[in-house]
Design goal:
This protein is of the alpha/beta class. The chain is built from ten helices and ten strands. Bound molecules: S-adenosylmethionine (SAM). S-adenosylmethionine binds next to helix 1, strand 4 and helix 7.
């Protein structure tokens, strides 16, 4: 397990992923009933942007830092407000030194009736995660294989749940594991909202993954992709993707509106683009 998210925390991919997560949670919290967030690959929860890892090639400068400095129209501001509020709450004044990971974002949004299960396998990261999420009785941190948790921890007893699957993609076959995992989990908990992150780098593997999902029998699948550049050779990460199974009905329109407005900020190359479309809309 070599992947270290600290090198990438707060980059354009984190920004898009975390905006989507906050939109899903905000929408689901319009209903009074409690919900469960299951974060299968949680990371450490809180990132120090002054650390050596975050400073080495400071990806967050073209991500969260650029976004915080940007002027956005009212409608877009409203969409990203819950996310930006969380980031601002962690930092003092205008100084940006800390960035929240997905489990901390979820934890900060929990209402008394909601619960968070954060899963991490890395032996050191799990300790940092426990430390960073400590003191909240609504949160449970577990040292476990996220692929196992994805199936074994659903359905949650709340019967309403958001399942974030954000693997590191450091090993071959991760796209296959992601497609198989969500198919199995969906069989056990068909009403869950599943948010599946994937890198946009290797087009062939990505297209095969999307085809597997399209043919999976799962009814409602939204595809959200944000490119910061054109593909290159050798391939490098030039975009970020998120599949949302059973998305809140407003998510499609919100992303269609907000993401293009983020292109000039997060994709200054001028070669970025956005794709928001239904993979299945049965
Ligand atoms: N979701 C986090 C966020 O948005 O802040 C970032 C997660 S990072 C992309 C992926 C994490 O998965 C790493 O912390 C890595 O240690 C962990 N990981 C790798 N393999 C795992 C596995 N099989 N089960 C659980 N966690 C795993």
């Amino acid at each position: 397990m070599n992947y270290r998210h600290a090198f990438h925390a707060g980059n354009f991919a984190d920004v898009i992923k975390h905006i989507i997560l906050t939109r899903i949670l905000s929408y689901m919290q319009r209903k009074e009933a409690g919900l469960r967030v299951l974060d299968t690959h949680a990371g450490i929860g809180l990132y120090d942007l002054t650390s050596e890892e975050a400073q080495r090639s400071p990806e967050w400068e073209q991500g969260i830092k650029a976004l915080l400095a940007a002027q956005l129209d009212e409608e877009v501001q409203q969409v990203i407000a819950p996310y930006l509020e969380i980031v601002k709450n962690l930092n003092e004044g205008d100084k940006l030194t800390r960035y929240p990971g997905s489990p901390l974002i979820a934890q900060m949004m929990l209402r008394p009736q909601d619960r968070l299960s954060a899963i991490e396998l890395h032996p050191q990261d799990i300790q940092r995660l426990e430390h960073n999420l400590a003191g909240d009785r609504k949160t449970k941190v577990t040292h476990l294989d996220g692929w196992q948790a994805l199936v074994a921890h659903v359905p949650p007893k709340e019967k309403r749940g958001v399942i974030l699957v954000d693997p590191p993609f450091e090993k071959a076959g991760e796209f296959g594991r992601l497609a198989d995992g969500v198919k199995k989990a969906h069989r056990r908990f068909s009403g869950g909202v599943y948010a599946l992150w994937y890198p946009i780098k290797d087009n062939e593997a990505k297209e095969h993954f999307l085809l597997q999902l399209r043919e999976s029998g799962i009814g409602k699948i939204l595809r959200i992709e944000f490119f910061i550049d054109k593909p290159s050779s050798p391939p490098k990460l030039h975009g970020t993707g998120m599949i949302v199974v059973n998305p809140p009905y407003v998510l499609h329109d919100e992303m269609k509106k907000a993401l293009p407005a983020l292109l000039p900020i997060l994709a200054p190359s001028g070669r970025g683009r956005v794709r928001v479309e239904w993979l299945r809309e049965d």
